[in-house]
Amino acid sequence: MDGLTIALMVSVCICGLLALVFAVRYLKTKSELKSFREQINEIRTTDREQPIKVASFGAPTVELAKEINLLVEELRTAANRSAEEERRVRTIMAGVSHDFRTPLTAADGYLQMVKEAVDGMLTEDPCRDVSMRRQELTEIRDYLCIVSERMRYLKTLSDEFFEVTYLDAKKSLPLETVRFDIVLSEVMMGQYAWIEASGIEPKLSVPEEQLTVRADRHYLERILENLFSNVRKYAKSRIELSVERSDRVRTGTDGTDAAADPAGEGQICFILRNDMDESITIDVDHIFEPFYRAKARSGPGTGLGLYVVKELADAMAFQIEGRAEGEMFEIRLTMPRGDL
After folding, report:
1. What is the pLDDT of residues 303-314, one digit of tens each?
2. What phi, psi does 57 have (nearest 5°)?
3. Taking CA atoms, which of 89, 254, 311, 332 is between 20 and 30 Å from 321?
4. DSSP label at 146?
5. DSSP readout, 240-256?
6. pLDDT tens per residue across span 257-312
7. Quick count: other Cβ atoms within 10 Å of Cβ 5?
8. How far is CA 284 from CA 145, 227, 287, 309, 325, in A?
9. In terms of DSSP bridges, do strands 267-275 and 212-215 run parallel, antiparallel, or are they unpaired?
């Protein structure tokens, strides 16, 4: 057998081996692609949460499986977020629908009573006793006052619902440097009437200096107004308000000061505290949820006030938390300081 024949035989063997290797790799790749397809289909059509598995340890296959698993995890997270958002919207819509229906029904009933009273007056003897007419007019006025109260409640509810839906539609808020001390003074002036009528003397601790924060002025006002509205509903005999820079922020309701936290520098903390009736119970883990109301509290309220506060705070990168110790309830709003 000459050398040429041997060389040809060796070449044929090498080509056969290469063909066999490529055939094995092709079959393995085909099998893994089929496995990928079946696993992806299982993830898509079932509740499977296990990541995609690979039979071989080849770098390209492992990298492909890793990328697919990352994509699946991102899609699952997005789907869960979307489902949670849908549940949240449904909860809000159901609550708003109920809260709209109740005062509207009451207002409609009182308007019907006003109409009947007016119709009766128009068909009565014009010479009827004046005192009787005065009594009827007084009743009509009382009915209209109740209707007006219900309409104000509906306006508050619609305003708060608008804030929620507007924030959902907007991805971010344009923030600017806002004088917090000025905004706080203006909002507090609007609270003067009910605070004076309550007979409560607020305890204030606000630095006499310019305090700036990074915020949207309108939504900052709305946060403060809602917080004071919450105090108005619950305060019994004490209202305490303080504003502190980051190097003087207190750590607890016991009044003890903590050492300055370098990570907290550049912040303004607004603290609003009030006492409550002993019969009122507040679950601080749920106060920022829509339509949450403290147990044993009576009186009007949408149940959206603190929820709107939390949504607005999150939109402006504020931190907010509620605390309850004994009969005292506290809200702490921490805001990034703005440029002077």
Report:
1. 677 888 888 898
2. -115, 20
3. 89
4. H
5. EEEEEEGGG-BSSTT--
6. 444 444 445 899 999 999 988 778 788 888 888 766 665 555 555 567 788 888 88
7. 9
8. 35, 15, 5, 14, 10
9. unpaired
